[in-house]
Design a protein that fits this description.
- The complex is a heterodimer of chains A (228) and B (98).
- Chain A is of the alpha/beta class and 228 residues long.
- Helix content of chain A is 32%, strand content 16%.
- Chain A contains seven helices and seven strands.
- In chain A, strands 1-2-3-4-5-6-7 form a seven-stranded mixed β-sheet, with helices on one face.
- In chain A, strand 2, helix 4 and strand 3 form a beta-alpha-beta unit.
- In chain A, helix 3 packs parallel to helix 4 and helix 5 runs parallel beside helix 6.
- By secondary structure, chain B is an alpha+beta fold.
- In chain B, strands 1-2 form a two-stranded antiparallel ribbon.
- Chain B starts with a strand and ends in a 5-residue tail after the last helix.
- The relative contact order of chain B is 0.22.
- The chains are: A alpha/beta (228), B alpha+beta (98).
- Chains A and B meet through helix 1, strand 1, helix 2 and helix 3 of A and strand 3, helix 2 and helix 3 of B.
C-alpha cells in the first residue's frame, strides 16, 4: 500500500467491512464498551458511551446495501456496541444479499433472540455464503459467566439447528480461567455436531473473569482452530 | 500502521498493514472497528472523518467517502508520518511483543 488509491483498492478487493447494525444489545459483557454504562453517571466514560448510544441509530438498509455493493467480498455484521440479531433490517438485508450470492455475509452474534423459532425462520432465508459466528465462551452451563445475560441453552440449540439446516456455523470460544476445564468437552460437542470451533485468545481480563497466562494473545486478539 | 516497534525498540516493517474498514452506529466509515470507541473519537474528529458530508447516507457511492481529501490525508499520515497517527492506531497496530 503506497497511497489512498491502493488502500481503497485493497479494501474493496480483499476485506470485509465491519458493520455496526444498531446500538442494541441485551448482554452485559464486562469488557464491552457498554459496560461503561454502569460507571458513575458523572464520569467521562459514562457520558461518552451514553452519547454514542444516543447518537446512534439502526443501520439503514440503503447504507448497508451501498456498502455491500462496494466491497467485492461482502460484509461482516459484528458490532462493538450492538448485536446484529437485533437489527430490524437483518431479514431484508439477507434477502437483498441474494442478489449478489457470491459475496459473503458474516453474522457475529452472542446475544440471543426470543426463541428457536426465530432462528429457524431466519436460517431458512440464508444462502450458502452466509456464515453465523456464535460467541459462546464455555458450555451451556458456563458461557453466561462472561456473556452476562446470554441464554446459553438457546445459543447452543441455535448452533446445532443451524448445522442441521446445513448452514455455515462457527463457534467462537474465548478462553478464560472459568472455562479452561471445558475445552475438551467443547471439542467433542463441536465434532459431534460438525460445528467449526475456533478458540479465541483475548485480553478481556477484568469484571470477574481472567484469561490464563498461557492463553493470552501476543497482540490484540488471536483466533486458533480446534487443534489447541 | 506500516511498521511496529519490537521489544528492543527496533522498527519492523509489517506484511499485512490493514484492518477492515468499520461502519459506525452514527453512520460514518472509520479505518477499523478499534477506532470506533468513545475514547478515540476525538482523534478521528480531528482528522475530519466525522464531517457531516462524509456520512454514508450523504454519499451516493462509498468511493466518494474513501477517496475524499480527509481520508487521503489520514492514509498519508499513517503511511508516511505514523508517529502523528491517532493513539489507537499506534497502540493497536504500531507495537508488537515478541
Amino acid at each position: 500500500m503506497s497511497d489512498i488509491t491502493s488502500f481503497v483498492d485493497y479494501q474493496k478487493k480483499y476485506k470485509l467491512p465491519n458493520l455496526e447494525t444498531s446500538t442494541r444489545c441485551t448482554l452485559r459483557c464486562p469488557q464491552c464498551t457498554r459496560a461503561k454504562l454502569f460507571a458513575p453517571k458523572e464520569s467521562s466514560s459514562y457520558r461518552e458511551t451514553i452519547s454514542r448510544i444516543h447518537n446512534g441509530f439502526d443501520l439503514p438498509l440503503e447504507d448497508a446495501t451501498k456498502i455491500f455493493d462496494f466491497f467485492d467480498n461482502g460484509v461482516m455484521l459484528c458490532g462493538s456496541l450492538s448485536d446484529p440479531v437485533y437489527w430490524p433490517s437483518l431479514r431484508k438485508f439477507i434477502q437483498e444479499s441474494k442478489k449478489q450470492i457470491n459475496k459473503k455475509v458474516q453474522i457475529h452474534t452472542a446475544a440471543t433472540q426470543k426463541n428457536l423459532e426465530w432462528y429457524r425462520d431466519i436460517f431458512e432465508m440464508c444462502h450458502p455464503n452466509v456464515t453465523w459466528i456464535f460467541g459462546a465462551d464455555g458450555l451451556s452451563d458456563s458461557s453466561m459467566t462472561y456473556r452476562i445475560g446470554q441464554n446459553s441453552k438457546l445459543i447452543f440449540e441455535a448452533m446445532i439447528l443451524g448445522k442441521e439446516m446445513q448452514l455455515d456455523i462457527v463457534w467462537h470460544y474465548i478462553i478464560f480461567d472459568y472455562n479452561l476445564n471445558q475445552i475438551e468437552d467443547a471439542k467433542k460437542l463441536a465434532a459431534d455436531n460438525d460445528i467449526k470451533l475456533e478458540f479465541v485468545k483475548s485480553n478481556r481480563t477484568g469484571g470477574g473473569v481472567t484469561v490464563p497466562d498461557d492463553y493470552k494473545p501476543k497482540r490484540n486478539k488471536e483466533i486458533t482452530n480446534d487443534t489447541l | 500502521m506500516p511498521y511496529y516497534y519490537n521489544s528492543k525498540g527496533e522498527k519492523i516493517e509489517k506484511q499485512d498493514v490493514e484492518q477492515s474498514i468499520a461502519y459506525t452506529a452514527d453512520g460514518y466509515l472509520l479505518p477499523c472497528c478499534w477506532c470506533d470507541a468513545p475514547s478515540t473519537r476525538r482523534d478521528f474528529e480531528k482528522a475530519g472523518l466525522y464531517k457531516e458530508e462524509l456520512r454514508v447516507s450523504k454519499n451516493k457511492k462509498i468511493e466518494d467517502i474513501l477517496l475524499s481529501q480527509e481520508w487521503e490525508q489520514f492514509i498519508e499520515t499513517v503511511l508516511y508520518k505514523p508517529d502523528d497517527a491517532p493513539r489507537c492506531c499506534k497502540e493497536k497496530c504500531g507495537y508488537q511483543d515478541e
